[in-house]
Amino acid sequence: NNKGGASASRVQCLKGSLSCSSFNLQTMDASEFCFPEAFNSSCKKKVSLHSVNTLIYFGLSFMSLVTTALNLLVIISISHFRKLHTPTNFLLLSLAVSDFLVGLFMFFQIMVINGCWVLGDVLCVLYYVFSGVLTSASVGTMVLISLDRYLAICDPLRYSTKVTTKRVQICVSLCWICSVVYILVLLRDNFQQPGKFNSCSGECVVEIGFVENVADLILTFIISITVLVVLYVRVFVVALSQVQAMRSHIVAVKQKHPSKTNVKKSELKAAGILGVVVVAFVFCICPYYCVTLIGKSSLLNTSTMTFLLCLFYFNSCLNPLIYAFFYPWFRKAMRIIFTLEVLRSGSSGANIL
User: Boundaries of each G-protein coupled receptors family 1 profile domain copy (predicted)?
Assistant: First the structure.
């Protein structure tokens, strides 16, 4: 019956007027538009295989869940246990907050995987503001982590007096405040009339001036990555020389200054672990930044851009995995949290180091 009805409809349309044909054409094409009721001004959806969309949906959803869960564990661990209230760990806390918000931010990316933005022009601008703030805060925190390790390894005698918990908290707060102000200035033209750069309904586009784009490229990418690389090259050069000195004089150092030897080893280990974090960050962020900031994204297909974006997001999921693999205190903290021992009175004073 359905087949017969469809055939009759087609025959009727062929025999009928032009408006009948136009109506059926609009009905057939309605599913291709973001807003079928206003298809004349609506953007078209991205055309891709259903299996590809399903894989992307599943991958981003799983990555979002893992990223938020693991980084939430890092936030709870460092915030709850007093033994972890060190300057270096407060920097890791700032990075975990940024990565946790990136995990939540992935849900917005899942919503626009078909190329349609349905949340309105104001939220579109806020989407870019939120994304920019998280990126800038992550880059700034990475620079602070590198500077922290540089001072710990290259100037260990004055490290404890230079790098205090209060100073680190001030630096982290300034990092986030500056990130917000920086992005608001960068996108200031888009707040006057949100959506004015959209070519069709369902598009989410912001425009940044040439000068601002060049400044963002230099400040957020070139200078930051250069500082990260230079500081950590210096850190590992000094660390290698210290390791060689410790190996050649290990007996004498242990007899005269056993506690100092332990501190040296712990600082070197921390530098190595955070070096892995920095290298992973550079590896994940560089491909995406090189494509988007240079302005060559139009030369790549959707699948490649999706991969670069997923690689960019994967870094936020990777950081807590690095902590779990290298930091015994993180594994112990997770055990205490999962067994609900964290709810007991006095658990914040537990020695998990």
Answer: 70-323
Domain ranges (residues) in the chain: 53-349
In sequence order, the β-bridge partners of residue 44 are: 33
Cα distance between residue 69 and residue 230, in whole Å: 33
Q: How far apart are CA 274 and CA 145, in angstroms?
A: 8
Q: Enter the DSSP assignment of 217.
A: I
- DSSP bridge pairs for 75: none
| The two structure tokens encoding residue 203 | 């598009």
Name the phi and psi angles at 170, rounded to 5. Answer: -65, -45
| 81 within 8 A of 350, measured Cβ to Cβ | yes
Identify the three-state secondary structure at position 33.
strand
Question: How much is the average pLDDT of 89-95?
Answer: 91
CA 23 to CA 13: how far, in whole Å? Answer: 9
Q: Return the pLDDT at 90.
A: 92
Separation of alpha carbons 160 and 5, rounded Å:
83
Tally of CB atoms within 10 A around 94? 25
Burial 25-58 (b: 16+ CB within 10 A, else e): eeeeeeeebbbeeebeebbeeeeeeeeeeeebee
State pTM to two decimals. Answer: 0.78
Q: CATH classification of 53-349, choosing from 1.20.1070.10, 3.40.50.2000, 3.10.350.10, 2.60.40.10?
A: 1.20.1070.10
pLDDT given for residue 233 in this prediction: 81
